[in-house]
């Protein structure tokens, strides 16, 4: 005899709806947009403790600086691509009703003869007001974004931000700051690199420099060199030549008290390659520490792959295969000058710095560990 079917066995299960997540209060939201030589990137976030929670984001390669080295101007096609991306950013800002924001442009707009016309066109077509910031502020924002990654054992810190059109280096002495206060001392640099009266032990900026060579501009300088290895060597040598005016250039550091924090697509890509990731994972990359030897091994691997092999590598791809080599040339030059056992990889940068600076100025961040 067949078993009886339980009552209601054929009925569809009753749907249980999970409550929709509460929309964040627009008054608590902040936005930061970074328009660089290669990319347009934006974050919308709300303060959370001593940091923030990202609500929405945007990132797209727009190649605003394409052809800038040759013509000194932003091309029509580059501006059109960028305005398309900015329209999407404007929609996200409107949808989230963001009132507090900073929307900044960097090296490509600093250098282009027609950048003011472009800024006006952006305002006319998207309603967004872009602000061209100077190299010192760009460097300062990169520094404070990396504050949570600073080791309490570090006494001498070099923060490196490899961009598309420029590279910012900031050397900071925190040896006089009590160990547990060192990350917070870095954060307080959002007020400026010059020493100000403070009741707290201060981080001292020994020197900073903005080198007008990033992954795109350095690549364009040596585009006519056909041999892959020769081009790489020339790029690395040329970048090092441009560091001659940087005060700590020849100083050798004790490795155990010296830390480099690198923020850029180059550094995160090198880290992903070192870890052997098939798919990029920010949680595994951000904050990772690498030695000079580990980084050198990855870069030698890129050279052995050649242009075709790099295109096929899932961590690099067709769009970035040339840029990763100019970025690696910059990184190799830095490690030749200052070898370290502790290069911290930062998947963060200008946008995060803009958010920290706005929230800190408004007093909405809690004191405490990051």
Automatic annotation (TrEMBL):
It comes from the Bacteria. It holds the Pfam family Ppx-GppA. SUPFAM superfamilies: Actin-like ATPase domain. Residues 1-23 are annotated as: Disordered. Residues 44-359 form the Ppx/GppA phosphatase N-terminal domain. One of its GO terms (molecular function) is pyrophosphatase activity. InterPro entries: ATPase_NBD (IPR043129), GppA/Ppx_hydrolase (IPR050273), Ppx_GppA_N (IPR003695). PANTHER family: EXOPOLYPHOSPHATASE (PTHR30005), RETROGRADE REGULATION PROTEIN 2 (PTHR30005:SF0). This is Exopolyphosphatase. It comes from Ruegeria profundi.
């Amino acid at each position: 005899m067949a078993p009886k079917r339980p009552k209601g066995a054929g009925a569809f299960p009753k749907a249980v709806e999970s409550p929709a997540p509460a929309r964040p209060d627009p008054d608590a939201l902040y936005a930061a947009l970074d328009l660089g030589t290669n990319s347009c990137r934006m974050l919308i976030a709300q303060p959370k403790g001593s940091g923030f929670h990202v609500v929405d984001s945007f990132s797209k390669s727009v190649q605003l600086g394409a052809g800038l080295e040759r013509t000194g101007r932003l091309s029509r096609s580059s501006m059109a691509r960028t305005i398309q991306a900015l329209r999407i950013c404007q929609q996200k800002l409107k949808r989230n009703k963001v009132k507090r924001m900073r929307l900044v442009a960097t090296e490509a707009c600093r250098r282009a003869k027609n950048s003011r016309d472009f800024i006006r066109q952006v305002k006319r077509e998207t309603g967004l007001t872009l602000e061209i910031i100077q190299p010192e502020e760009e460097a300062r924002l990169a520094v404070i974004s990396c504050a949570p990654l600073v080791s309490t054992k570090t006494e001498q810190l070099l923060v490196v931000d490899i961009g598309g059109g420029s590279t910012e280096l900031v050397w900071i002495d925190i040896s006089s700051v009590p160990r547990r206060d060192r990350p917070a001392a870095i954060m307080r640099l959002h007020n400026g690199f010059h020493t100000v009266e403070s009741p707290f032990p201060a981080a001292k900026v020994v020197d900073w420099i903005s080198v007008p060579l990033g992954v795109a501009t350095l690549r364009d300088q040596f585009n006519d060199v056909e041999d892959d290895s020769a081009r790489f060597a020339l790029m690395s040598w040329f970048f090092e030549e441009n560091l001659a005016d940087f005060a700590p250039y020849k100083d050798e550091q004790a490795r155990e008290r010296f830390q480099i924090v690198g923020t850029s697509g180059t550094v995160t890509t090198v880290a992903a390659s070192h870890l052997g990731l098939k798919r990029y994972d920010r949680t595994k990359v951000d904050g990772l520490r690498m030695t000079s030897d580990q980084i050198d091994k990855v870069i030698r691997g890129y050279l052995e792959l050649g242009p075709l092999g790099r295109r096929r590598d899932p961590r690099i791809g067709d769009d970035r295969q040339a840029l990763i080599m100019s970025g690696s040339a910059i990184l190799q030059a830095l490690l030749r000058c200052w070898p370290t056992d502790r290069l911290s990889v930062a998947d963060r940068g200008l946008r995060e710095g803009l958010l920290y600076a706005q929230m800190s100025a408004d007093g909405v961040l809690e004191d405490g560990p990051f």
